[in-house]
Specification:
The protein has 250 residues and is α+β, with helices and mostly antiparallel strands. 24% of the residues lie in helices and 17% in strands. Strands 4, 5, 6, 7, 8 and 9 form a 6-stranded mixed sheet that branches. A 3-stranded antiparallel sheet has the order 2-1-3.
């Protein structure tokens, strides 16, 4: 016997049936960060491939790598944070799907500021429940993107690998050749960066050269740029050549 239809064309039986509920775990691939495996906080999407991560996770990742952690696409050659945007719509969905996540995150942020004696930003303060008043903002009053380059990062580097001495092996290629750093950074900081990126052993030595000058560890990048002059620059980038050598025997 067929079920009876109502005037609206739907079965009466279906009106009493609830929509089946799905476990939250089925949605984990869409609401969790692939870097920290936790629920998304400040969801931020790469505009090149549309993969989304926690803002803090993806910004930290870009300190060492300019590729997407999921698909390995190059996000930007020198400044990958240019090509990421906050995904507020997805973040709202995450907060609605995971009970108490938003409240817990705000409490942790308030505690973070208070423990350090800092003023809690108005956007973080937990206000008592009440009617929400949304004020329209004029387009010209919208603040610029939060992803801006700090003014202290005033030197752009181009790191050129010139080769390794015979007997040195098992090192990774330097994928991130373009780096923007503080002018107060020294050649020693550059060497540490190269060692970390190429996974070098302590058995080899990194020699850094600018023009015809072999650089000392204590020299700052600003001093090098002013000392060598225009010869050290290529399209506005400070060019440093480096090679891997074995330490000299006493």
């Amino acid at each position: 016997m067929l079920p009876r239809l109502s005037h609206e064309g739907t079965t009466n039986d279906s009106e009493d049936e609830e929509e089946p509920k799905r476990p939250l775990s089925e949605f984990y691939p869409y609401i969790r960060c692939a870097l920290c495996s936790c629920f998304l906080i400040d969801a931020t999407t790469i505009i090149e491939c549309l993969h989304t991560f926690c803002k803090s996770c993806i910004v930290k990742h870009f300190f060492y790598n300019n590729r997407c952690p999921t698909c390995s696409i190059v996000v930007h050659q020198t400044q990958p944070t240019y090509n990421i945007r906050p995904d507020r719509q997805l973040q709202d969905i995450v907060y609605k799907m995971v009970p108490f996540l938003e409240e817990s995150e705000r409490k942790q942020m308030c505690q973070f500021y208070k423990e350090r004696g800092l003023d809690v930003p108005n956007t973080v303060v937990i206000s008592p429940p009440g009617p929400v008043v949304i004020k329209r903002q004029k387009k010209e009053n919208i603040p610029p993107s939060v992803f801006t380059i700090p003014p202290e990062l005033d030197v752009s580097l181009l790191l050129e690998f010139v080769g390794a001495e015979e007997g040195i092996a098992n090192y990774k290629p330097l994928e991130r050749r373009y780096v923007r750093v503080s002018g107060e950074a020294t050649v020693r900081h550059v060497e540490i960066f190269i060692r970390r990126m190429m996974e070098l052993s302590s058995a080899c030595q990194v020699d850094v050269v600018c023009g015809d000058h072999l650089l000392d560890h204590f020299q700052s990048l600003k001093d090098i740029q002013s000392f060598v002059g225009e010869e050290a620059l290529q399209d506005g980038l400070l060019v440093l050549h480096f090679g891997l050598v074995l330490p000299s025997q006493p």
